[in-house]
UniProtKB/TrEMBL annotation:
The keyword 4Fe-4S applies. One of its GO terms (cellular component) is membrane. PROSITE patterns: 2FE2S_FER_2 (PS51085), 4FE4S_FER_1 (PS00198), 4FE4S_FER_2 (PS51379), 4FE4S_HC3 (PS51839), COMPLEX1_75K_1 (PS00641). SMART domains: Fe_hyd_SSU, NADH-G_4Fe-4S_3. It holds the Pfam family Fe_hyd_lg_C. It is found in: Membrane. This is Ferredoxin. It comes from Holdemania filiformis.
Length: 577
């Protein structure tokens, strides 16, 4: 251990740790901006500046290593003034549109300015010419608000292994941008939104579509159906100050009803439908020497990545559309027919924890006769804003059910789709029981649960040893993909999700601010959100997709059987190189 003093308090620290780590372990908070644990550690912004006794200049606590006998002052006048000066300089090149900013009251720069007592921007002058890119369907970049912290750059590089963003130009003209300041739409960006979640300010955000929902709700000719993704219920409460991991399924249904949607359904129902189709596809591939390993296809960020980076592996992808797209297709066909509605007069709104879903719905394959399966995607954050806009007192809403007619029931298997490993577990419940033709001894395939980037397991299914793997984020999926490319993959079935931990940590979920991510208030947010879903699974009376009575009815009355020609026409898709 290394002995040092911080603000005259004796502190012990592990060798090799930084002043910031030592201070945090001792409960002393030093403000940061560019630092993001496990992602970005450059000392570039100098907000974490501290005074070190005997040192000529001030040090950046996030990179400065501790040493024996060191004396650190985090709040000396010199440190405080330098920190304030740094933030004033950042503000001088910032557009200052705080009142109308998407991150107002949830902005780390705003918080810093407040914390440091900055009352006016002292250095008004010329500003770096900004770029505003809103061409891509999923995410928007507004460099007039960028603080050049580099957190997005490192997130894309380390989490997704992509490096879409970098610093371009020099000096005062420095910007964060895709190559040549291109649009996100014109580069190999997955639209996953992980960079958005890492942004401390309003420089990166989702393309907002709230106005389109309000328009549809106010159009008497439109029948507006909403569906909510599994992961939304595990995080929406955070937008209203509820603790991370609070499950708000019932309040969410109540809020959507009050907003005025004609039907309020749960994407979980369609997750059950996906398992029927995908489970059937897997069994077919195993029994008829199809392409293996088969890889799940519900995460549209992952699909874009596969199309861009591993086009030679597209035949490994399941042909299944993602659950909410399947739901859209069923609503615009079977539901429209049974209710005597013109599919053009139905607006399907999906509430998703994901920015890539906004890009998924505009894919040309996701339309039939010119009618889109799903019309609008709102992120969890946008739903939070919509609820506030409608003046709904969310915290005090009663718990209500989803609409129960036709698609209201779902199994526990559908709920867990939102956590990494959930799709695999849901599929295993159905595939194993179908092939073995007897009830499962245990429904909990805990080997594929948890927040590790890669999980593998070997299970016996009907006398066959089935090897499965689960990966979330592209940096974790890449080794599995390289193995397939090299012809050495031992797996039969692989689940891949675009975001670390799965949809619960999607790019459209409430922003987890850096003080939590950096561990000053240590909360394992991914685990807490995932737990909310596994708890909901355990509460369901039906926990296997193939036992959902409304799924059985849909096959009886409409689709006939999994993999039928009609199922293929509506529920399956193709990919492009
Ligand atoms: Fe997901 Fe899915 S689980 S992709 O992560 O397959 O977004 O939650 O809705 O469609 O069901 C997301 C979540 C979601 C789909 C399902
Ligand atoms: Fe990278 Fe995802 Fe951001 Fe695109 S959306 S730049 S892939 S982190």
């Amino acid at each position: 251990k290394i002995n040092l003093k911080i603000n005259n308090i004796p502190v012990q620290a592990e060798p090799g740790s930084t002043i910031l780590q030592a201070a945090r372990a001792a409960g002393i908070q030093i403000p940061t901006l560019c630092y993001l644990k496990d992602v970005n550690k450059t000392g570039a912004c100098r907000v974490c500046t501290v005074e070190i006794k005997g040192a000529k200049s001030l040090g950046a606590a996030c990179v400065y290593p501790v040493s024996e006998g060191m004396e650190v002052f985090t709040n000396s006048q010199r440190a405080l003034e330098a920190r304030k000066h740094t933030v004033e300089l950042i503000l001088s090149n910032h557009c200052g549109d705080c009142l109308s900013c998407i991150r107002n009251q949830n902005c780390e720069l705003q918080k810093l300015a407040q914390q440091l007592g900055i009352r006016k921007v002292r250095y008004e002058g010329e500003k770096t010419p900004p770029t505003f890119d809103e061409v891509a369907p999923g995410i928007v970049r507004d460099t007039s608000k960028c603080v050049l912290c580099g957190r997005c750059i490192e997130t894309c590089k380390k989490v997704q292994g992509l490096g879409i963003l970098s610093f371009i130009n020099r000096g005062f003209n420095t910007k964060v941008a895709p190559v040549f300041d291109k649009s996100f739409n014109d580069v190999n960006c997955m639209q996953c939104g992980q960079c958005v979640n890492a942004c401390p300010v309003g420089a990166l955000f989702e393309k907002e579509d709230i106005h389109r929902v309000i328009e549809a709700l106010n159009d008497p000719a439109q029948h507006v159906v909403v569906q909510t993704a599994p992961a939304v219920r595990a995080a929406l409460g955070e937008e209203f100050g509820l603790p991370i991991g609070t499950r708000v399924t019932g309040k969410m249904a109540a809020a959507l009803r009050r907003i005025g949607f004609d039907r309020v359904y749960d994407t979980n129902y369609a997750a059950d439908l996906t398992i029927m189709e995908e489970g059937h596809e897997f069994i077919e591939r195993v029994q008829h020497q199809g392409v293996l390993p088969m890889i799940t296809s519900c995460s549209p960020g992952w699909i874009r990545y596969c199309e861009f980076e591993y086009p030679d592996l597209l035949e490994h992808l399941s042909s299944c559309k993602s659950p909410h797209m399947m739901f859209g297709a069923i609503l615009k066909s079977y539901y429209a027919q049974t209710h005597n509605l013109d599919p053009r007069k139905i607006t399907v709104v999906s509430i998703m924890p994901c920015t890539a879903k906004k890009a998924e719905v505009v894919r040309p394959e996701m339309r039939k006769d010119g009618v889109a399966d799903v019309d609008v995607v709102l992120t969890t954050r946008e739903l939070g804003r919509l609820i506030k806009m409608y003046g709904i007192n969310f915290e005090n809403l009663p718990d209500e059910d989803f609409d129960q007619d036709m698609f209201g029931q779902y199994s526990g298997a559908g709920v867990i789709f939102g956590a990494s490993g959930g799709v695999m577990e849901a599929a295993l419940r159905t595939v194993k029981e179908t092939l073995e033709n007897k009830p499962l001894d245990s429904l909990d395939f805990t080997v594929v649960r948890g927040m590790e980037g890669v999980k593998t397991a070997e299970l016996e299914v009907a006398g066959m040893q089935v090897k499965v793997a689960v990966a979330s984020s592209m940096s974790c999926a890449k080794p599995l993909l390289d193995e397939i490319r090299a012809g050495t993959s031992p797996y039969h079935f692989i689940e891949i999700m675009g975001c670390p931990g799965g949809c619960i940590n999607g790019g459209g979920q409430p922003i987890i601010n850096a003080s939590i991510r950096n561990g000053f208030r240590p909360i394992d947010w991914k685990k807490e959100r995932a737990k909310a879903l596994y708890d909901e699974d355990a509460l369901q009376s039906v926990r296997k997709s193939h036992e959902n009575p409304q799924i059985i009815a849909l096959y009886d009355q409409f689709l006939k059987e999994p993999g039928s020609p009609l199922a293929h026409e509506l529920l399956h898709t193709t990919y492009s190189k």
